Amino acid sequence: MSEANTLRSKRLWFWFSISVNLGFLGVFKYFNFFAASFAESMSHIGIEVNPWTLKVILPVGISFYTFHGLSYVIDIYKERIRPEKNFIAYAVFVSFFPLLVAGPIERATHLLPQIQQRRTFNYTKAVDGLRQILWGLFKKIVLADQCAIYANLIFNNSPEYSGSTHIVGAVFFAFQIYCDFSGYSDIALGTARLFGIDLLRNFAFPYFSRDIAEFWRRWHISLSTWFRDYLYIPLGGSKGSTGIRIRNILIIFIVSGFWHGANWTFIIWGLLNALYILPSILSRSNRNNLDIVAQGKYLPSLKDFFSIILTFSLTVFAWIFFRSESLTEALNYISVIFSLSIFTIPTIKPMALVFLLIAFLVIEWLGREKQYALANLELRLPKVLRWSVYYGMVLIIYYFTGSAQKFIYFQF
Amino acid sequence: MKRFLKGIAIFLLPLLIFCIFSEILLRRIPNDYKYKKKYLDINSRYISTLFLGSSHAFFSINPDFIKSNSFNVAYVSQSLDYDLEILNKYHDKWDSLTCIVIPVDYFSLFTKLETSVEAWRIKNYTLYYGININNNISYYSEILSNNLKVNSKRLYNYYFRHHPDISCSMLGWGTDYNSKSKKDLESTGVSAARRHTAADDKEFRDNLEILQKIIDFAHEKNINVLLFTSPAYKSYVHNLDSTQLKQTISAVSLLTLNNNNTEYHNFLNDPSFNESDFYDADHLNVLGAKKFTLKIDSLISKENGSTVL
């Protein structure tokens, strides 16, 4: 593509490459969805269609490495980088194992230069990497997997529980998905750091966000910035008429939902987030909260506190669609929440887990100005205390290990 | 790099010591597997009736009520492959064995210990029976098979409260399911039936072959094989998948037709077992076990009266 003599042939190669990348994703991930949706829509007008469907296993992480590969092609086309001539360096970029199955979705402009340069062992980086891996394991095994037990119990047996218990289930799922995915990202980032490579940060304490725009700057950062750079800005971003701005927001959030899976639940989840964020985009207040909440202070202001609670509640509500198997299931779940049984005491209330989550939130709050909650611990705690924390974490991980759940984002 | 590796070694050393110490202490705790292995080591030559199988046999058959010299080697989630391995382990020591009794229940041909949620129990066969049919490293260690929550409880119970992990009688019968501590028969029926219904029949052919190997083993040594389907409460029976049940029963019936040393008896809907005989919907309690064992005993006596062709 970079050696094409004319703009026309360059474009041809570009679209060919994009089509191949998206083609694999489309066939493996979306073919059956479109076939089933087509058959269903035909059945509404009285035509019975039995579409041919693929009986294949979805390759693990296909959405991640497709986007990873797309960024390379687009950056070459846009002449932000030069094509990599060294096959080994390119192969490492494409298949660097820590990020292969669930990201972060890297950019060639960020990762390739690190692969190309000669790396030497860096003690501080390696120690920090191990600490981040330990923190990731803690989040996954202790918090995400324990929350999953209760979230699954409530979501899978929804009719048996009250509205208040449904809220507990949705909150547990919110923590499950955060600790699961950010835990994986911590493990990936820490592992890469052992090799002297810094990957893109993927989470920045999203549940302390004061509005939805801030949430999306802090949640799955590598994907949201990907959509921003390769879809939202080329579409015109927040420039242009109100109609165009609304269109652009709807497009990126619906595509983002669709990226997660071929199911209407993900599309509605994306749409809901678009609706959440639209008022701030239209009133141009989406960049009000660019700083870290209560920076340099121990506690947030009352206004910030209530903003955080409101943002978290909106996010939890949207997660119900993300977690449900179908739209009907999600709507049934929500209808129970908004019934009179919301005023009863939840029947599932694992207090030990609740205390663990509170302790986790305190640790995250204290570390919110760092890359991850335990970063730079050597500057904050003396060695004896630091090592006690590590040993404590290892023992707690061992205490809870065994109820292993798959990483949620492996399915994407 | 040297500093980094040294730091890791120093950090890991106390953890390693903790792990080794815990492993030793855990292995010292007396348990059912150790007991059964020791019993077989000493007495296998004198056993004339051997009960194999899963929890259904472990809790349902009390050898105290069997006239012949018998032992219950069944255990929770013990699948047919482990039954065969136990038989093979003492293959030249079954001098007095005349009858092998094995339950073939709704799930028996569709599951294996290694693919079930109880797979952590495999370490007991590896560590205490010396049976290695799974190479997963975690099954060679107590501390890798269970988490700290479980292991610390076991250590506390034995070393501080002096309660060993023994839950069987001298002849191997499971004594935990007494008639006073009964579970809800309706809900356990639904949940057990759901748990025992297989998602596919991937293990079916393999399990059937294993059962045939057990029968062949018995045939070689002039031993009778008594297959049975355990009694269960109606809440369990009504929630079973009819295809899986039919597949099981017809496969076992065919086995009995093709092997003249084998008999099959289906007690699944036996009306002589009522609510008071069950601990939960698919396990008998002490009273039910006595009633059932006496039935089995009469069948054994009858079968031992006939000769193997």
Explained architecture:
The complex is a heterodimer of chains A (412) and B (309). Chain A has 16 helices and no strands. With 412 residues, chain A is mainly alpha-helical. Chain A starts with 6 loop residues before the first helix and ends in a 12-residue tail after the last helix. By secondary structure, chain B is an alpha/beta fold. Chain B has a single domain, classed as SGNH hydrolase (Rossmann fold, 3-Layer(aba) Sandwich), CATH 3.40.50. Chain B contains 12 helices and 7 strands. The relative contact order of chain B is 0.16.
Number of domains of chain B: 1
Query: Which residues of chain B sit in consecutive blocks of at least 5 with pLDDT less than 50?
Result: none
Strand content of chain A: under 5%
Percentage of residues in DSSP E strands of chain B:
5-15%
Task: Give a count of the beta strands of chain A, DSSP E runs of length 2 or more.
Answer: 0
Order of helices and strands of chain B: HHEHEHEHHHHHEHHEEEH
Task: Name some characteristics of this structure.
heterodimer, A: 412 residues, mainly alpha, 16 helices, B: 309 residues, alpha/beta, Rossmann fold, five-stranded parallel sheet, two-stranded antiparallel sheet, 12 helices
Question: Helices and strands in order, then pairings?
Answer:
The complex is a heterodimer of chains A (412) and B (309).
Chain A: H1 7-44, H2 62-77, H3 87-95, H4 97-100, H5 108-116, H6 123-156, H7 163-194, H8 212-218, H9 221-235, H10 242-260, H11 264-282, H12 302-323, H13 327-337, H14 351-366, H15 377-380, H16 383-400
Chain B: H1 2-28, H2 32-43, E1 49-51, H3 55-60, E2 70-72, H4 80-89, E3 99-103, H5 122-129, H6 142-145, H7 148-159, H8 185-196, H9 204-220, E4 224-229, H10 234-237, H11 242-258, E5 262-266, E6 278-280, E7 283-284, H12 286-305
Parallel strand pairs in B: 1-2, 1-3, 3-4, 4-5
Antiparallel strand pairs in B: 6-7
Summarize the structure.
Chain A is mainly alpha-helical and 412 residues long. Chain A is 66% helix and 0% strand.
